[in-house]
Amino acid sequence: MMLLQWFIFPPPPSVFIKAMSVISLTSIAILGFSEMRGKHLNYSKFWNSNSQNSTSKRQIKLSGRAGMLLLYTPAFLAAFISLLLLPHHHIRFVLLNSALALHFFKRIFEVLFVHRFSSDMVLNSAIVISLSYFSSTSTMIYAQKLTQGLPEPPIDLMYFGIVLFLIGIFGNFYHHYILSNLRGNGEKEYKIPKGGLFGFVICPHYLFEIIMFVGVSSVSQTLYAFCFTIGTFFYLMGRSYATRRWYHSKFEDFPQHIKALIPYIF
């Protein structure tokens, strides 16, 4: 805790923020470990991973595009509306709010104009993820609002965070663009992606998303933001591990040297 005091604002006397910090970290991390064990949220290539379960056959399914829009739109609206309506007296609050709005706007733009969808999404999974994004975005903004008037952390990570955020958001978009060009019009089969960092890890878009959220946390420097980012890291680690395992099962010629998330390490 003494070390953390150099990097984060003093936690506000808010039971809600403290509870949400614990809930976000643990719940999102648990989802990541569930992914490793083969229990997936049903979207992307795992959209029907639990189809052998009789109850899953009765679940409502959305198109991939509609499901992804449901994921990101509420969080974008939360960030955009708060940026417009909430009074802000510190550049850190404006930067955090703008970064969150830009991130989810980019995701909506990709859903509408970049991604090519080959699968559906189960409504239950879409709702879980959408609520997670919306609640975490709203809580992060609220936690930042509570820091106004408090002394700044001794070590200022704000400008470092801006650099990481820009690296993360551009790297994430670039690798999403590569994925979108793997299939031609009307094609639905999966292919081994190539280009960018795909020669080193199967999920470089996840790696850059983590970098982006580390940047957001560094701009924020609140306990909640770092807790959410740590939870997100564990979730995307589990999801990338499951994705690599899926590629190994589908393609006999999948390169063994390609890791899941971190080049040469994991």
TrEMBL record:
Name assigned to this protein: Uncharacterized protein LOC132799092 isoform X1
GO cellular component: membrane
Molecular-function annotations in GO: oxidoreductase activity, acting on the CH-CH group of donors
Annotated TM spans: 15-33, 66-85, 91-109, 121-143, 155-174, 195-216, 222-242
Gene3D superfamilies linked to this entry: 1.20.120.1630
One BP term from GO: lipid metabolic process
Predominant location: membrane
InterPro entries: 3-oxo-5_a-steroid_4-DH_C, SRD5A/TECR
Designated gene of the protein: LOC132799092
Membrane disposition: Multi-pass membrane protein
UniProt entry keywords in alphabetical sequence: Membrane, Transmembrane, Transmembrane helix
Protein family per UniProt: Belongs to the steroid 5-alpha reductase family.
Presence of keyword Zinc-finger: no
Subcellular location: Membrane
PROSITE patterns for this protein: S5A_REDUCTASE
Domain 3-oxo-5-alpha-steroid 4-dehydrogenase C-terminal as annotated: residue spans: 157-266
